[in-house]
Design a protein that fits this description.
The complex is a heterodimer of chains A (793) and B (290). By secondary structure, chain A is of the alpha+beta class. Helices cover 26% and strands 23% of the residues of chain A. Chain A folds into three domains: 17-25 and 481-620, 2-Layer Sandwich (Aldehyde Oxidoreductase, domain 4); 31-127 and 191-270, Alpha-Beta Complex (Aldehyde Oxidoreductase, domain 3), CATH 3.90.1170.50; 286-474 and 627-778, 2-Layer Sandwich (Aldehyde Oxidoreductase, domain 4), CATH 3.30.365.10. Chain A starts with 16 loop residues before the first helix and ends in a 15-residue tail after the last helix. The longest helix of chain B is centred in the C-terminal third of the chain and has 21 residues, at 266-286. Classes of the chains: A alpha+beta (793), B alpha+beta (290).
């Protein structure tokens, strides 16, 4: 293991920072091409309906209309999906959720196209609507996808030990129910994509805000019935994704491509915020029942978990999202007896898929709330209960996997967070403070003398924590490998590229640091190339916090390949013996401490000697194993650990929660890109607070209420206090110098830590996210009676 | 979005001439933070508009002046302009505070004071404050001018007394005479760029341990911003002790039920508005520290 790093772990200016800060970076919607057409989508304001007929006669021949695109224009598959092809590009006889698109108009003026949309007559019959996921598996439930014959998308069972025996051996058994809400990714840049027809022999080029260019290519090629090589996807600068620009961008790319081929002209689709929230997929709402048996000493003996995930109208990523849930549902604890069932089901609700966290934030909210409740019953502190049960090296997870080959740092991150936040003292002080509570009683809405709370008694302080383990990268989901392309120029500058996509997370900088470290140069010397599926090797999707681990491994491999070509050249050029150690550092090359040449000098020399200075690096994950029958196996090849401590103030009069400080301690392995890693923590914690306190997409019979950011309230900079990132760098044999995953762990912990802090503050346990004003005051949500807004009257 | 012709008059006279026909297709635009957003959302209130008169460049409608114990604020004055005005910060602190809670810096740089009450949303943040300060507004048309209390001007949610040939030109806020204490309170779902769930404006003057004068106005818990004159009269002259303050807050709860009825949000809002009212009174009477 290399110990002295010259670039790794130091603050390096972000590769695309200057362009983004000065506003010169080109995002998808900045692209304008001569002759380009725009589009408008035809939808109906129904959640579930049978389409009887569509009458375009009122708009046919309009000067503003270039083409009407329907399913009849599709040469290849008419339904698509990242796992199952079940989502129609254009609906035929039915809509099953309000975002569904029946047809698309293309023309030169967006404004005129929207007027034309209003003139199309769609004759349809509304159908009964299924919105309650708990009723989806009823015998007489209506079927969302009739071909599937069931509303069950997937069922992941996990069986370890004998859970009934475990309960029997326990001193206490408790059962709790938790629910989490539907949320929107809320990337600041809405979807935009342009498809450019390249002629019969060249296929099509697509440029857009695309998270996973290789997935998009596969789907567009299937829709167009074209070979993969004729579909080229180029990624624009991306204004946020968080897992959200996968299925939706595949869909929009396919529609744009169909229209581009039909018209022979470039076609751009760009969404308003309302289009985006209406049609794009969201995070799964979960209904989670947890039963835990434990001994007086705090040891958990058995856990039985039953989870229903609302997958909405389409399969999307539900099978994989819920798979991560089944692996991690018991949290980072050693439990002998586990019985877990996770089911994803169809409803007519907005469909749900990948979102940063990917099936972990929901069970973490449940299981970390549960651990605190168990601790409280036994008069143990939140820290003690986790010390007793937390996983250590050599322990077996719920899936029967032995944790080995890396530092199992769960208790290290816990103790570090406890110390950095002065957790124990604060937790005790808050608990001992005299509680004055206000519990409104709606049967007597006018307050009486004793109900009133003085201003100085309104604010209660609380501190809470949560911990997690997280499997890195794809695990049992599928093939896990990535490629990088590195090319040294004769002047010592370098081209770098990888098949994983820059989605804002900063991988260009991280990869540049890795290449610079191996070759002893600086990150500024590296010119990062844009991702284009025609040039870059397929590296799978940019998901699962796998970029630094997998792509980083590939970049390091590419740089080492080239280095191994340069070393023999150096040795022969300077007539060095085999024992001499060649060092690349500080843009110089030296042997046993003596400088031989500069890095550019070496590049010039190698070039003049005809040495190949370009290489493709490859990194393939170690194998994993999974038994679908009993949910046992080595689910992921390595894990990361995190602990977040939330310090809050709760206003007992209004139900407001102020998150004053979050101490976020993560073992993500070696930290490559210090500023990038801190940025991940700031962003992830903020999103976690949004999930915990502020955000919720609600709907009335499937029709979404919050279609823009006036009512869908992501937290602002005023809504969260200090965030303190702390990194514990555990060793791992995998990745570049043991660099692993950070993006998702930063998001998954905050909601549970906040819920536990609220309990510490006011002694009330909350079981339903988000912990909004009504939840805190009333323990429930209140909904408007209809979707009408006075301002639109 | 509609196809719209925008006219930018330089004088009030020009603007009044443009709208003198009483044409329903003509609208006034100042900051545009309600009009543009409403048009984009397809609000019926703006659906028929095909011509907008932009009043941002009319000098008579800008600026803040003080004379004879009255502060006159030009109708097209922005919230940022109001917040940065020294007289308002000193003499009308509730107004400065309310303006500061609206939207974001960008919105406050555009949005105007008259826009807030002409739009007359239930959640308009400055309305309760302007009501508590007994503000009157000046309205002009080619036919002449009229002045009326803001409370009379506001009719129903999103509806006012303004005729289609009229422009609100200014709002006059008399400086409270006496030793008033008070505050403005806003509760939203977040601490910036938030639509108000509850607003309250409160002014109270204590003389010899009795409530001499009391002014309470609400927003967002009532269909439009509302002054509670009945409660004010009932409690003026009463001893300013905790019992009275609680009674005022309870009475506010009763009145809100009478005015608004029980709505989906009442289970949350009713107890909270009473608590907030009590706490504001408590802080005003006993100071923040007690």
């Amino acid at each position: 293991m290399k110990k002295n790093f010259s670039v790794v772990g130091r603050p390096v200016i972000r590769e695309d920072g200057f362009e983004k800060v000065t506003g010169s970076a080109k995002f998808a919607d900045d692209l304008k091409i001569e002759g380009m057409l725009y589009t408008a989508m035809l939808r109906i304001p129904e959640t579930h309906a049978k389409i009887n007929s569509i009458d375009f006669s009122a708009i046919e021949g309009s000067q503003y209309l270039t083409a009407i695109c329907t399913r009849n224009d599709i040469a290849g598959i008419k339904k698509i999906g990242v796992i199952k092809n079940d989502q129609p590009v254009f609906c035929g006889d039915k809509v099953v959720t309000p975002g569904d698109v029946i047809a698309m108009l293309a023309g030169e003026s967006e404004e005129e196209l929207h007027k034309l949309i209003g003139k199309i007559k769609v004759d349809y019959t509304p159908l009964p609507v299924l919105t309650d996921p708990l009723k989806a598996l009823d015998e007489n439930a209506l079927l969302i996808n009739e071909e599937a014959g069931t509303n069950l998308i997937v069922h992941h069972p996990l069986r370890k030990g004998d859970v009934e025996k475990g309960f029997a051996q326990s001193d206490f058994v408790i059962e709790r129910k938790y629910t989490t809400q539907l949320i929107e990714h809320a990337y600041i840049e809405p979807e935009s994509v342009t498809a450019i027809p390249m002629g019969v022999s060249r296929g099509i080029k697509i440029i857009g805000s695309i998270q996973n260019p290789f997935t998009t290519r596969r789907i567009v090629a299937a829709v167009l019935n074209m070979p993969l090589s004729k579909v080229r996807i180029e990624q624009s600068h991306l204004g946020g994704s968080f897992g959200g620009k996968d299925d939706t961008m595949c869909m929009l790319s396919a529609r744009a491509a169909v229209a581009a081929l039909k018209t022979g002209r470039p076609v751009k689709i760009r969404y308003t915020r309302e289009d985006s929230i209406l049609e794009s997929y969201k995070r799964h709402p979960y209904i989670m029942n947890y039963k835990a048996g434990f001994s007086k000493n705090g040891k958990i003996n058995a856990m039985k978990i039953d989870i229903i995930a609302d997958g909405g109208a389409y399969v999307s990523m539900s099978p994989f999202v819920t798979w991560r849930t089944v692996v991690q549902a018991t949290g980072p604890y050693l439990i002998e007896n586990v019985h877990t069932d996770v089911r994803a089901v169809h409803t007519n609700n907005p469909y749900t898929g990948a979102m940063r966290g990917f099936g972990s934030p929901q069970p973490i909210f449940a299981q970390e709330s549960l651990m605190d409740e168990i601790a409280s019953m036994l008069n143990l502190s939140p820290v003690e209960i986790r010390r007793i049960n937390g996983l250590k090296a050599g322990d077996k997870t719920a899936t029967g996997q032995t944790l080995q080959n890396h530092d199992v740092n769960l208790l290290t991150v816990l103790e570090t967070a406890v110390e950095k936040s002065d957790f124990t003292n604060k937790w005790k002080d808050n608990r001992e403070n005299k509680k004055i509570l206000f519990e409104p009683d709606f049967s007597n809405p006018v307050l009486k003398d004793n109900d009133f709370i003085r201003p100085e008694d309104s604010i209660k302080r609380g501190i809470g924590l949560s911990v997690s383990l997280r499997g890195c990268s794809l695990g049992g989901e599928g093939i896990d490998a990535a490629a990088a392309y590195l090319s040294l120029q004769s002047d010592g500058t370098i081209y770098l590229n990888c098949g994983l996509a820059e989605n804002g997370q900063g991988l260009k900088t991280t990869f540049s640091i890795i290449a610079a470290e191996v070759l002893g140069t600086t990150a500024e010397n590296i010119y990062y190339l844009e991702l284009n599926t025609g040039i870059t090797p397929d590296s799978g999707p940019t998901v699962a916090s796998r970029s630094t681990l997998m792509g980083g491994g590939a970049v390091k491999n590419a740089a080492e390949i080239i280095k191994q070509r340069l070393i023999p050249l150096i040795k022969s050029e300077w007539k060095l013996g085999d024992e001499e150690e060649i060092e690349f550092a500080g843009n110089k090359v030296s042997a046993s401490g003596k400088e031989l040449t500069t890095f550019p000098g070496l590049c010039r020399l190698a070039y003049s000697r005809g040495i190949c200075l370009a290489a493709i690096g490859w990194y393939k994950s170690p194998d994993v194993h999974w038994n679908e029958e009993n949910g046992q196996g080595d689910a992921y090849f390595t894990y990361v650990y995190g602990c977040q401590v939330a310090e809050v103030r709760v206003n007992i009069v209004t139900g407001e929660i102020y998150v004053d400080r979050v101490t976020a301690v993560h073992d993500a392995g070696k930290i490559i890109n210090k500023l990038g890693a801190e940025g991940q923590v700031y962003g992830g914690v903020t999103q976690g607070v949004g999930y915990g306190v502020f955000e919720e997409v609600t709907h009335e019979n499937g029709l979404i209420r919050e279609l823009n950011f006036d009512t869908y309230t992501i937290p602002t900079s005023k809504d969260i206090g200090e965030i303190i990132p702390v990194f514990v760098e555990g060793d791992d044999a995998n990745g570049a110098w043991g660099a692993k995953s950070l993006g998702e762990p930063t998001l998954e912990l905050a909601s549970a830590a906040i819920a536990n802090a609220v309990y510490n503050a006011v002694g009330t346990r909350l079981y339903n996210l988000p912990l909004n004003l009504e939840e805190v005051m009333l323990g429930k949500k209140l909904r408007p009676v209809n979707n009408k807004r006075g301002s639109l009257a | 979005m509609n196809n719209i012709e925008i006219t930018i008059p330089k004088t009030l006279q020009e603007a009044l001439e443009l709208i003198s026909g009483g044409n329903e297709g003509i609208g006034i635009i100042a900051g545009g933070t309600d009009v543009v957003a409403g048009m984009r959302q397809g609000s019926n209130r703006f659906g028929g508009i095909n011509q907008l008169v932009d009043v941002n460049h009319i000098k008579e409608m800008k600026g803040i002046t003080g004379a004879g114990g009255i502060v006159t604020i030009g109708a097209a004055e922005t919230f940022s302009g109001i917040i940065s005005n020294k007289i308002i910060r000193k003499e009308l602190p509730l107004l400065a505070k309310a303006c500061g809670t609206i939207g974001s810096v960008q919105i406050r740089n555009r949005a105007t004071i008259a826009g807030n009450f002409v739009n007359n949303a239930p959640c308009a943040d400055t309305v309760p404050v302007l009501l508590a300060y007994d503000s009157t507004i000046e309205i002009k048309s080619l036919a002449g001018k009229r002045e009326l209390p803001l409370a009379e001007f506001l009719k129903a949610p999103y509806r006012t007394q303004l005729n289609s040939d009229e422009i609100v030109t200014s709002i006059k806020v008399p400086l409270p005479k006496g030793d008033f204490k008070g505050d403005f309170y806003k509760l939203g779902r977040r601490r910036a760029v938030a639509i108000s769930r509850i607003t309250l404006a409160l002014l109270i003057e204590i003389k010899e341990s009795r409530i001499n004068r009391l002014r309470i106005a609400s927003g967002a818990v009532t269909p439009i911003g509302t002054r509670f004159n009945g409660i004010e009269k009932e409690f003026e002259g009463k001893t300013a002790d905790e019992k009275t303050l609680k009674a005022i807050a309870s009475r506010l709860g009763e009145r809100v039920i009478e005015v608004t009825g029980l709505r989906w949000s009442s289970e949350y809002k009713l107890p909270v508005v009473q608590q907030i009212c009590y706490q504001m009174l408590y802080s005003a009477v006993y100071g923040g520290g007690k």
